From TrEMBL:
The keyword Membrane applies. The chain crosses the membrane at residues 5-24, 30-51, 63-83, 95-115, 136-152, 158-177, 198-218, 230-250, 271-304. This is Membrane protein. InterPro entries: EmrE. The keyword Hydrolase does not apply. Keywords: Membrane, Transmembrane, Transmembrane helix. It holds the Pfam family EmrE. The lineage of its organism: Bacteria, Bacillati, Chloroflexota, Ktedonobacteria, Ktedonobacterales. It comes from the Bacteria.
Length: 324
């Protein structure tokens, strides 16, 4: 149950990204600064934490030895994830981006066959491809149905250009984030804590953010003080706190693909938190009855996910006690 709670709390901090990215766009700020400044601002905070724990040297050595894997999956997990989200913020409101982002719930489950697990028998150990957990996929689909219902009323007022550039990039990000996260868990194989892993991915994706920073200076000019402050808030809340909480949750269940799917499904909470934030800070209209029904489906799907994961854990614990 603890990983699920961590996932829900992380979704609340992640929602700040959707809310503030929307606010930055309304104020005329460029998506370039929303994307690049988050990771540039994250770096010193993560460095301080890892240096305080005296864990920097082994991390840098592992990056040197496995640089190719670190570089590729950091670019996928951070670059292909956050740049599309920030780009889409210029074409769609935060609630729609947060809603579309929930495709990641199903994406994480569908990506399962790309990963392997070790099966140990009396005579040998072999690696086999994981299977898609169909029950978890069904529960995730319930959550997505709730998201779809919640967005239909709002999306009807958008033009096709907004849908094309505000939704498709988010769908790309929805697959990139769980893919990069899971691949980095394989690469690090439990050798590092969450802060080391997030720092390593930030360092390895830094050329992308610095390049985007220079591109922004040449094309749109420097960011305003207000956008810089909002990007700093996103860096701390979403980049450091939320990412660390979510990675901690996924680390705890990385060997159980069903529990991993359940933890990833907690990100549906971002829709609820984003909607609440936009109602409070932007005086957005309250949800319609259809949207409220969608919200109930989202909550119901998350609860069922959690109960099933907790029930399985209880059965396994009881079984272990019986064997002892």
């Amino acid at each position: 149950m603890k990983p699920i709670i961590l996932g829900v709390v992380a979704s609340g901090f992640f929602a700040i990204s959707f809310i503030l990215n929307h606010a930055m766009n309304l104020a005329g700020g460029s998506w370039i600064w929303s994307a690049s400044l988050r990771f540039i601002f994250m770096l010193p905070f993560l460095l301080i934490i890892v240096l305080h724990k005296k864990n920097l040297a082994p991390l840098l050595e592992d990056i040197r030895v496995h640089f190719g894997a670190w570089f590729v999956w950091s670019m996928v997990g951070f670059g292909f994830f956050y740049i599309p989200l920030c780009f889409a913020s210029g074409f769609a409101p935060g609630w729609l981006i947060a809603g579309t982002w929930q495709v990641t719930i199903v994406a994480g489950t569908l990506l399962t066959p790309l990963f392997t697990q070790t099966i140990i028998s009396e005579h040998e150990s072999i690696r086999v491809r994981r299977r898609v957990p169909l029950k978890e996929l069904l529960f995730s689909s319930i959550i997505l149905l709730g998201v779809a219902i919640m967005q239909i009323d709002h999306a009807a007022h958008l033009v096709w250009n907004d849908i094309l550039f505000g939704i498709l990039p988010v769908a790309v990000a929805a697959f990139a984030y769980p893919l990069g996260n899971r691949k980095m868990m394989e690469v690090t194989a439990g050798k590092f804590d969450v802060y080391q892993r997030v720092l390593g991915m930030t360092l390895c994706s830094l050329p992308l953010w610095l390049g985007l920073f220079v591109y922004g200076l040449l094309t749109v000019g420097p960011p305003s003080a207000g956008q810089s402050l909002q990007a700093l808030i996103v860096a701390i809340s979403s980049g450091v706190i939320a990412t660390s909480l979510f990675f901690t949750a996924t680390d705890k269940v990385k060997h159980d693909i069903r529990k991993l799917a359940t933890v990833e499904a907690t990100q549906a909470g971002e829709v609820l938190f984003t909607l609440l934030g936009e109602v409070i800070f932007f005086a957005a209209a309250l949800p319609s009855l259809a949207s409220l029904f969608g919200i109930l489906l989202i909550i119901g799907g998350m609860v069922v996910h959690s109960l099933c994961a907790n029930k399985k854990e209880t059965i396994l614990t009881a079984s272990s006690l019986t064997e002892i």
